């Protein structure tokens, strides 16, 4: 009897067929997840590009307007890119703002307020997060109430008090409240520090206490070096808010010749209005306003350009995203 060799296809084996089906199903699921991931990324990119366009379009329009000469401003065909780059409008805005003097004053006030708020709010935030003090919950509740009280409510008694101390037309009433973490901004910064210190492990303090460290030594030697992300966030927020603040300088520095950039823009608008009343409308009026605004926002933009990465990391680590 002859022997017949039967070749069995391994793909027809039941276990083999089951494995092939599982792999096909797995590939289908992975493919669907990849498609969903691609659609999600496209949607995110669409949102980011749209938001970026909304925020950057005014800046691009500002730069484009202030770099046009008279011919480009009259020509309706020139929309975004000028045919000739003209710096005369920027020079006029530089002179009207008295930019070197106003920039120095704004930088001095913003740095002073930012440093004072960074230090004072760190102490208060650590106390609310770690220390056992009487009426801590009540004090924190009062701190939260400062979100409700607008500065317009308290400005009149502050003006009267500053007038009695002969501090009007000085920068002391603007910088002194920062030493005590006063106002809406101080409350925000205290909460940022409190959130950061509350998330730190207690073992660090316990180890320092075993070594005989006092509360102040624990704060300055152990906790404060760890708070670099919170310090950076608070410093940048405080600097930018003070730099752009127009309300307080307009109240305390009325009639003063030494004004920051936020008030110099108002002076530039007044100069343009006087020129308009005397000489009539000019095609350079709007570009001149654009150039003044650009010079005012340029320093914070440069600061954020260099500190962007650390600022984003600081926001994530301080818990502001949550």
Automatic annotation (TrEMBL):
InterPro entries: MetI-like (IPR000515), MetI-like_sf (IPR035906)
A Pfam family it matches: BPD_transp_1
Localisation per UniProt entry: Cell membrane
Alphabetical list of CDD domains matching this protein: TM_PBP2
Domain of life: Bacteria
Annotated keywords: Cell membrane, Membrane, Transmembrane, Transmembrane helix, Transport
Protein known as: Carbohydrate ABC transporter permease
PANTHER family reported in the protein's UniProt record: ABC TRANSPORTER PERMEASE PROTEIN MG189-RELATED, ABC TRANSPORTER PERMEASE PROTEIN MG189-RELATED-RELATED
Gene source species: Paenibacillus gallinarum
All residue ranges annotated as the ABC transmembrane type-1 domain in the record: 103-307
The keyword Membrane appears for this protein: yes
Family: Belongs to the binding-protein-dependent transport system permease family.
Main subcellular location: membrane
Record PROSITE patterns: ABC_TM1 (PS50928)
TM regions (residue ranges): 38-56, 102-128, 140-162, 174-197, 218-243, 288-307
Membrane disposition: Multi-pass membrane protein
SUPFAM superfamilies associated with the record: MetI-like
């Amino acid at each position: 009897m002859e022997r017949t060799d039967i070749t069995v296809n391994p793909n027809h084996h039941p276990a083999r067929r089951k494995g092939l089906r599982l792999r096909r199903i797995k590939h289908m699921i992975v493919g669907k997840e990849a498609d969903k991931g691609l659609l999600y990324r496209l949607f995110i990119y669409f949102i980011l590009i749209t938001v970026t366009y909304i925020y950057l379009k005014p800046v691009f329009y500002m730069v484009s307007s202030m770099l046009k000469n008279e011919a480009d401003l009259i020509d309706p065909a020139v929309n975004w890119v000028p045919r000739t780059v003209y710096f005369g409008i920027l020079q006029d805005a530089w002179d009207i703002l008295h930019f070197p003097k106003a920039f120095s004053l704004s930088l001095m006030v913003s740095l002073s307020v930012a440093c004072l708020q960074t230090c004072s709010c760190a102490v208060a935030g650590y106390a609310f997060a770690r220390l056992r003090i009487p009426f801590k919950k009540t004090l924190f509740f009062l701190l939260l109430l400062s979100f409700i009280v607008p500065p317009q409510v308290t400005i009149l008694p502050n003006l009267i008090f500053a007038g009695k101390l002969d501090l009007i037309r000085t920068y002391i009433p603007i910088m002194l409240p920062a030493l005590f973490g006063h106002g809406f901004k101080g409350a925000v910064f205290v909460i940022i520090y409190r959130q950061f210190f509350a998330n730190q492990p207690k073992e660090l303090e316990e180890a320092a206490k075993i070594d005989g460290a006092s509360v102040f030594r624990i704060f300055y030697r152990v906790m404060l070096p760890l708070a670099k992300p919170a310090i950076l966030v608070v410093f940048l927020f405080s600097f930018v808010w003070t730099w752009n603040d127009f309300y307080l300088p307009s109240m305390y520095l009325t009639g003063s010749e030494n004004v920051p950039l936020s008030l110099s823009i108002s002076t530039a608008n007044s100069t343009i209005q006087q020129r308009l009343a005397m000489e009539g409308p000019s095609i350079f009026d709007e570009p001149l306003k654009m150039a003044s605004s650009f010079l005012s926002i340029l320093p914070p933009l440069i600061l954020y350009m260099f500190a962007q990465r650390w600022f984003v990391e600081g926001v994530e680590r301080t818990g502001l995203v949550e």
